[in-house]
Design a protein that fits this description.
about 240 residues, Arc Repressor Mutant, subunit A, Chorismate lyase, 6-stranded antiparallel β-sheet, about 30% helix, globular
Length: about 240
């Protein structure tokens, strides 16, 4: 049975700071190597805490968009670093950045026993407990992604207590278990019968399927299968030499 969730109404405070800086970087307001606003200036501008600003800057640094130098400040990154960085994107942020409404339907949220294959992927003993969630993300009411995720409890013991109507699993895990390495596999594939039903599409409709495994210090954090209807999803990028 689906768990009803309440749609988010506004971006989180740190997301507003992050979106502003990304937008101005894209406009060329700060050229590579240029000193950007200080944390104190951003705290005053957005009326948020220093911790909120720090999170926004930390995520921008992880995406290769800025360089943070202790005791000096934050600088716009060199373009080659921006173009060569593969990042873990948060779907909720992408949807809200377009001015659309994100809504999550949690269809499954429980502890299970890891099969041998899953245990090998996460680097845990077969038969160990593992957390499992199945969530459908909507963009303005239209199903955009079916997220089937397994999580290593040792890395995120409070995972099942999180309210995934307010925060996505991606953001929650980046907060409690910072990712050191991510492995991706991307392919065009037909959905499973359950995925087609949850996304409201035909079984023969082509989908973009991303299988992503993340780890920290050699320990598996999560294994996720992300399924997007091909007619509703577009991967975009920008490169300027």
């Amino acid at each position: 049975m689906a768990t009803k969730t309440t749609p988010s109404t506004a971006p989180a405070p740190y997301a507003r700071v992050k979106h502003y800086l990304k937008r101005e970087l894209a406009k060329g307001r700060w050229t590579p190597g240029t000193l950007m606003p200080s944390e104190a200036e951003l705290v005053q501008r957005f009326s948020v805490s220093r911790m909120t600003v720090n999170r926004a800057l930390r995520e921008l640094q992880a995406e290769g968009l800025v360089n943070r130098v202790q005791g000096s400040g934050t600088y716009a990154a060199q373009l080659h670093r921006v173009s060569s960085t593969l990042t873990i994107r948060d779907l909720q942020e992408d949807i809200q950045a377009r001015g659309h409404e994100h809504r999550a339907e949690v269809h499954l949220k429980r502890e299970e026993t890891a099969t041998p294959a899953l245990a090998q992927q996460l680097g845990i003993p077969a038969g160990s407990p593992v957390f499992h969630t199945l969530i459908v993300h909507h963009d303005n009411g239209v199903p955009l992604q079916c997220e089937d995720r397994y999580v290593n409890p040792a890395c995120a013991p409070g995972y099942l207590d999180a309210d995934f109507s307010q925060i996505t699993p991606t953001h929650y895990l980046l907060d409690v278990a910072p990712t050191w390495e991510a492995h991706y596999a991307i392919e065009a594939s037909a959905p499973t019968a359950e995925e087609a039903r949850l996304l409201g599409i035909r079984r023969d409709e082509s989908c973009l399927v991303i299988v992503r495994r993340t780890e920290s210090r050699g320990v598996g954090i999560t294994l996720a299968r992300l399924v997007h209807p091909g007619s509703r999803y577009l991967i975009e990028g920008h490169f300027k030499p």
